[in-house]
Specification:
Length: 229
């Protein structure tokens, strides 16, 4: 469609898939010379703040930047998904729309940071991640401390907690539980040790502790896994 802007008098042609980004508090007057359909997506400030926190940025300082007649396959994909959800009377529910909105906010904030020359949030390097995960794997049957893991990685304990979750998407303590559950599952499938010994070898304090964690992570009991071998 042909469009024009006042008071600048700028004229251009906007095609399917192009989009504008307008941060809150800004306004522009564009007039359409041709019939068209437009998808308008409004991101709540709370969602933008949540996206900033997910990226490890200060939510009070992070913000979107204006874009005009831009193209981006990911933005276009999310926009059409939201439009389809709206047209079908939102069968997938609020959590689906919020997930799409959060993905859009994260993507736009990342673009804003790159435009401003802001470095991407720090994550563990491949070598650092290998050191930490290899240490965890070798000491699953022991009481692994965050301080010891931090020393292995060469960062502070508080820094490791943040970097680990940013790198793998789960807190370090949850990762350890998942690895212990996986080791216990492997030993149960072998079938040559009693469940009480397997619990200790996998790093659980006792058999009931192993059963609780296994039900939470895998959704099954140790006895069911042992019978399925």
């Amino acid at each position: 469609m042909r469009i024009s802007c006042t008071p600048t008098g700028q004229r251009c042609v906007r095609s399917r898939g192009q989009f504008n980004v307008m941060p809150a508090g800004t306004a522009e007057d564009w007039f359409e010379d041709d019939a068209s359909d437009t998808v308008e997506v409004r991101l709540p400030a709370s969602l933008v703040r949540l996206a900033a926190e997910e990226l490890g940025r200060d939510p009070d300082r992070a913000g979107l930047v204006s874009q005009c007649h831009a193209r981006d396959e990911q933005v276009e994909h999310i926009g059409w998904a939201l439009a389809a959800e709206q047209a079908s009377k939102a069968p997938n529910g609020l959590i689906y729309r919020e997930s799409l909105g959060l993905a859009l906010a994260v993507h736009l904030l990342t673009h804003a940071a790159q435009t401003a020359g802001v470095a991407a949030p720090r994550v563990l390097s491949r070598r650092e991640l290998a050191r930490v995960t290899e240490y965890i794997e070798a000491h699953l049957d022991q009481d692994v401390s965050l301080l010891r893991l931090a020393r292995v990685c060469g960062v502070s304990a508080s820094h490791l907690r943040t970097l680990f979750k940013r790198s793998l998407g789960v807190p370090v303590h949850e990762y350890i539980i998942q690895r212990r559950v996986e080791r216990a599952r492997t030993l149960l499938m072998r079938g040559d040790l009693p469940a009480s010994q397997i619990a200790l070898d996998a790093g659980f304090s006792h058999q009931s502790h192993m059963a609780r964690c296994m039900r939470r992570v895998l959704g099954v009991t140790p006895s069911l896994i042992a019978r399925s071998r």
